[in-house]
Amino acid sequence: ERTPPPPLILENATVRFGGIVALNDVSFTVEPGTIHAVIGPNGAGKSTCFNAITGVYKLASGKITLGDTVLSNTPPHKIARLGLGRAFQNLALSGTSTVLDNVMLGRHSLMKGGFASYGLRLPWVIKTENRHLQRAAEICDFLGISQHLHKPAGLLSYGDQKRVDIARALASEPKVLMLDEPAAGMNSTETAEIAQLIHDVRDELRISILLVEHDMSLVMDVADHVTVLDFGKRIADDVPSAVQKDPAVIRAYLGA
Ligand code: ADP
Ligand code: MG
């Protein structure tokens, strides 16, 4: 079966924007095959942390590694090939393309020669393309959106579009799935469904999940481990039950 994913490790990661230290000397480890949440009040540095891991922002100092591979300061398009799959906080789907075509975009990083060679209808190309299409359809099935494969993504409900976005991230066969506020804009039923889905991804695909989330209730239900940020600094790093009782965390969330 699948080998367990490598650990994702942040060591003293620091990101600056001019005079602002948006991420200040932050360290934590996403253990293989776990759901790890990064939480914190608005402006805590969650998105900055997410963007540093996915290569959108450079570190001023510190290091990010996935197993033996150094990720820090690697451009985003290379990060996907190194094993990080990301879904977006604001949906970045092509509304007019079909669900299947949107998910196939996620396999781009796996396709030899990229999409260009797929314009040439050579027999081996068609065979490889069919294999990719089949896998993309399997992933959609896993996420419960297979009935929508050939519909324009823009016609789906918000919750289902979120699933398409996650399917596209999974289509790159990541070792770590990165989710930025997956429950944003969702009602409580949809949030519960997303929580179930995140568990299914961990248990059935056996990959790690790093989840950045403002909504404490989702995190407490779904995460194996939680890192709490406040003003760019790590203020707690523990199992959810311990984090929930931590006075520093309570203070940060109450804004006291
Ligand atoms: P969160 O996602 O936890 O709400 P952010 O990571 O978005 O927090 O922001 C952390 C801090 O960094 C905030 O003070 C924010 O204003 C600042 N910041 C984030 N991104 C940028 C940027 N691109 N340029 C300048 N400042 C930024
Ligand atoms: Mg944010």
TrEMBL record:
This protein's record includes keyword Transport: yes
Domain of life, source organism: Bacteria
Leader sequence segment: none
GO cellular component entries: plasma membrane
Keywords assigned by UniProt, alphabetized: ATP-binding, Nucleotide-binding, Transport
Listed GO MF terms: ATP binding; ATP hydrolysis activity
Domain ABC transporter as annotated: residue spans: 8-256
Protein name, UniProt field: Amino acid/amide ABC transporter ATP-binding protein 1 (HAAT family)
Organism: Antricoccus suffuscus
Full-length numbering of the shown residues: 20 to 275 of 316
